[in-house]
Design a protein that fits this description.
2 copies of one chain form a homodimer. Chain A is an all-alpha fold and 194 residues long. Helix content of chain A is 69%, strand content 0%. Chain A has a domain of 133 residues: Tetracycline Repressor, domain 2 (Orthogonal Bundle). Chain A starts with 6 loop residues before the first helix and ends with a helix. The relative contact order of chain A is 0.11. The structure holds a DNA duplex (18 and 18 nucleotides).
Chain lengths: 194, 194
DNA sequence: GTCTATAATCAGATAGAC
DNA sequence: GTCTATCTGATTATAGAC
């Protein structure tokens, strides 16, 4: 149970990862997963108790993958504010939505097993942003009246909200403009005594 | 057809408004709507071609109501930056999500009739924020390097992203912290030459 | 305009053979 | 471990009486 090395199990999880990003949790049926993975009904229910657990396994893998990408952007060799700019301006498929936080408005978030990987991903970014801002602050690079923790929360909110803007306007540029605003603001509150 | 004065039609739309906020579009079935409204199957399909059109009518009303609230916050009698602060810090039920933009990640956004009211609401706020920032800028109250349009996009993104943070962390405070960051930053980029 | 009855399809899951 | 067959209830809608 939940042991790797099983071909169909891996195919099922891979298909679920793709469908969760594309359609979300509620709109993804076990039937869809089986069709995409090439597995039969029995394989899914042999490896997992049900749909929720398949999704939890898929989300855990997605969070792990995305956190690794984030950690690559926040390399210690880069100056702290450059790490933040790299995260803000990284390339994104805005219309697809955030791979994990796209589930934020689904009933799935009321289930701890599904919410946890999403919260871990978002929380990890927020912690990385905050640590970088505290580093910049310690070097005297942050304007007075700006709390690193609050600014970090604001920045992750701009990114997640940017996805929302792109989706509702059906326009990638809507997200880019919000990110532009964040970069301008970051520059303004860090230049003063840099 | 879509004529007001019909009791059941109004009950159906009212029930749909409640359910769309609570559960979203895909998770709201005509059956749920009928149960909540007290109407029978026939009433729904007499007044509307189907589920999509009921939702479109409900969303249009929701957008109209919320835009009226926004316009109340952006009263011309208030100084421009105070209008923005009033919008940012208004009370919200963060865990319920944005009444309109909570649908942003549903397939419904690919249907123009459903996306338009949501886009109109978000776009209206963004236009109000931008006009207020341009007013502040004209009075010399905006730091150099800050474009009113980009800052407006950033601010609406913080609010919409704040809802996402609250939902994924299942914690209202997560949104408040992001809003706090936005207020601090707004203060920092407007004080310099105010 | 409103109702109840019915239908076709799909959702999520189980049974049991191989 | 993997498969096909089957099951129960929900979804979205249609039919037709009142």
């Amino acid at each position: 149970m939940a042991r790797p090395g099983s071909s169909k199990r891996e195919a099922i999880v891979a298909a679920t990862k793709a469908l969760l990003w594309e359609r979300g949790y509620e709109a993804t049926s076990p039937r869809d997963v089986l069709a995409l993975s090439g597995a039969g009904q029995g394989s899914l229910y042999h490896h997992f108790p049900g749909k929720r657990e398949v999704a939890a396994a898929a989300l855990a893998e997605m969070a792990e993958e995305e956190i690794a990408v984030i950690d690559g952007l926040f390399s210690p060799g880069t100056p702290p504010l450059d790490r933040i700019r790299a995260y803000l301006t990284r390339e994104r498929q805005a219309l697809r939505g955030c791979r994990l936080a796209r589930l934020s408005n689904e009933s799935a978030m009321e289930e701890p097993a599904l919410r946890e990987p999403v919260a871990a991903y978002v929380g990890h970014i927020q912690a990385r942003l905050r640590a970088s801002l505290e580093e910049a602050d310690a070097a005297g690079g942050l304007a007075p009246g700006i709390a690193p923790a609050a600014l970090a929360a604001m920045l992750i909110a701009v990114v997640e909200g940017g996805y929302v803007l792109a989706r509702v306007h059906w326009n990638e540029a809507a997200m880019r403009e919000a990110i532009d605003g964040a970069v301008q603001v970051l520059d303004a509150v860090t230049r003063p005594r840099a």
